[in-house]
Amino acid sequence: MAAEEKWKGWASKQHKEAEDGEEKEPCVPLGRQLGEAGRFAYAALCGISLAWLFPENEQSSFRTEFIEGFVKWLDLPDAVLPAMTAFAGGLGGEGTETFTEILLKDPILKENPLLITQDLLSFSLRDGYYDARARVLICRVSWLLRIPLAELEVLEESLLESLKEQKEEESETAEVSRRKKERRKKLKRYLLIGLATVGGGTVIGLTGGLAAPLVAAGAATIIGSAGAAALGSTAGIAVMASLFGAAGAGLTGYKMKKRVGAIEEFEFLPLTEGKQLHITIAITGWLCTGKYGSFTAPWSSMLHSSEQYCLAWESKYLMELGNALDSLLNGLVNMMAQEALKFTVLSGIVTALTWPASLLTVASVIDNPWGVCLHRSAEVGKHLAHILLSRQQGQRPVTLIGFSLGARVIYFCLQEIAQEKDSQGIIEDVVLLGAPVEGEAKHWKALTKVVSGRIINGYCRGDWLLSFVYRTSSVQLNVAGLQPVDLHDRRMVNMDLSSVVNGHLDYMKQMDTILKAVGIKTKECQQEEKGSGSLFSPLAKKSQQAASSEARGEENTRREEDEAGGE
């Protein structure tokens, strides 16, 4: 990959300069090497982006703490702090383009704008954990600077490799260890001054628990993994435990030891062999005999992260449901009837009395297993919430994706997390496909408190089966899997999948196509250069842009009202 080669070449150059310049002044954080105008524009851009991404009152402490720490990181004078705090508070959004232009004109960034992404990553990891909100901010700033998201992935993988090498240092030969120890004093001074947060001329990262080890480890993105490894394996082990969960095992180390309430089965199955600084958890909605008899089958082509898991839950009941769905669609209801039902649903006149009598006579085939799984999915979602809140996955951002009852698991997981204090910064993005949950905006508002990135609702207007199972419910006309969720928030992205999904079972059968439609990377397209710095497909980005325009319109309206009131 061109981006990876370019980055490795630059990192190698910095590594050589660090080794050759023993008598020179140690390197400082990359952001601090910018000119005064560049550093001001850099901080202002981050402040404005924070206000746009996280305008809620409950996010004010995060915005304030981030911008205060960032002003120190860039060694800006204290006099600029009020201005930066104002930017982070929602003022000055119209200056985004101006600050972007000023930053890109800095001589240091002309050769490699990616240095901003790298610097933000180092700053975000300085305390030993990776907040989902920080990653969303990095993606946002990178997008403004026209840096592809793929290059952030390269940086994260580079850092991860350095952590692994630190952990394995004890097994290296005595000669290699001796040579590294000779450079230890020089490199240690170089790294701590170059990367630790500096306040009042004193390095304060040394007493931050895991902060100093992680700061040292993060130096691999500046001087190469060999230099970072010189700080010793103890640092690497500590960081791995912090980022990746107990003993670095992550979610694979968790298995429900005893029955929790009504839940009989709950386990994480690995979809990939790698490790990454952000993870993805996929949740299957039902099982059926044959090709789709396993939880992992629908997700075989997904490659959103190098570290992906699939949640195995209540397989006995999901298999019963899947077989019931198969019997209903392939035996009891012929294709002609299904097309007629689809047209009826699309017409919007479906009520409990308009369903065909022939279908109602076999309703028990689906109603009983559906009702059981409906209840159990809610319980599983609540249990998943407490697993994530306990940081079993480590201190890393999590993306959740699920279809049908798997999407319902995610919905109740987020609702449960939202009830806990200080639960922000865990979830990055969520993708709910054909979700059998309430579709009214008021029920989704709580999700915005805990999702840092995007909430994607993939729906199909002609999904007659989903409409049928809700035929006796008061919410049958407000099901998220049948329509857009009218929530006015920049996180909310509604995607009409009617051209891809012909019926509810297609969420499993057409998963590869659906993943591409919603912008999730698959193995088939992993070599493609996205160039957008975004998770989303053009359709999703169109929805995102509309939300951005609406948000800016509301902000301008509020400003005009305030000015009118002042007069």
Automatic annotation (TrEMBL):
GO CC term, one of those recorded: membrane
Ranges of biased composition (kind: Low complexity): 540-549
Membrane topology: Multi-pass membrane protein
Pfam family, one: DUF726
Residue segments, region Disordered: 1-26, 528-567
Transmembrane segment boundaries: 190-216, 222-249, 343-366
Domain of life (superkingdom): Eukaryota
InterPro entries: AB_hydrolase_fold, DUF726
Biased composition (Basic and acidic residues): 1-18, 551-561
Coiled coil (UniProt feature): 149-184
Compartment(s) of residence: Membrane
Record's keyword terms, sorted: Coiled coil, Membrane, Transmembrane, Transmembrane helix
Family stated for the protein in its record: Belongs to the TMCO4 family.
Protein name (database record): TMCO4 protein
Encoding gene, per UniProt annotation: Tmco4
